Amino acid sequence: MAEPTLQASSAFxxxxxxxxxxxxxxxxxxxxMASFAPARGKKDAVHAAIQAAYGASLPxxxxxxxxxxxxxxxxxxxxxxxxxxxxxDRDLAAELEGVLAGIASVVDQSDGRVVVRxxxxxxxxxxxxxxxxxxxxxxxxxxxxxxxxASHIGIxxxxxxxxxxxxxxxxxxxxxxxxxxxxESAAEYASA
Length: 192
Known about the structure:
Elements: E1 24-27, E2 31-38, H1 43-54, E3 64-67, E4 70-76, E5 79-85, H2 92-99, E6 104-108, E7 113-119, H3 123-128, E8 145-150, E9 153-161, E10 165-171, H4 175-186
Antiparallel strand pairs: 1-7, 2-5, 2-6, 3-4, 4-5, 7-10, 8-9, 9-10
C-alpha cells in the first residue's frame, strides 16, 4: 500500500478579495518566516550576527527593518520575526539557525503563520474598522510595527511604504476569519 502524501494547501479557503481601484488585497503565500530570541547574555552577539549576515540593525522597539533579501520585525522585547521570499526553497529557520548557532533560539513560523498584504488609497480606511490603533501617517509610518488585533484576531501589523501598503501576520488557523472580516470591511469600496 502506498504511503499517503501530504500536500501543501492554502490557509485561505474562501479567498474572494473585493475588486476596487482603491484597494488591493493579496495573500503572501510564498514567504518563509522564523522568530528568534537571544540566549541569556547573547543579545549583543545576536545583533552583531544579524548585522554581519544581512546588513541590518535589529530594531529595539516596534519597527521593521530590511536587510539583504529579508525583513525583520520587532515582535516583543528581545524577540524578532524574520520574513523573506521562499524562492529556491529557502528555509529561513534553517538559515537563521546557522547564523545564530549557540546564541539564539529560532522557531520556524512558515507553516504556523500567514501574511496578508493590504494596499491602496482605502487600505487605512478598511483597517481602521477593526484595528484599534491610530493609523494616521503622523502616528504610524513606513517601518512602523504594532502587535494588536483586527476584529479580535491577534496580528502583527507593519507598514511597508507610503502607498500605503500594510502587511498583517496572524496564526494560520485565523486566516479565513480574518479574510471574512477584511472583505466585509472593504465591501463599501468594492466595484460592481
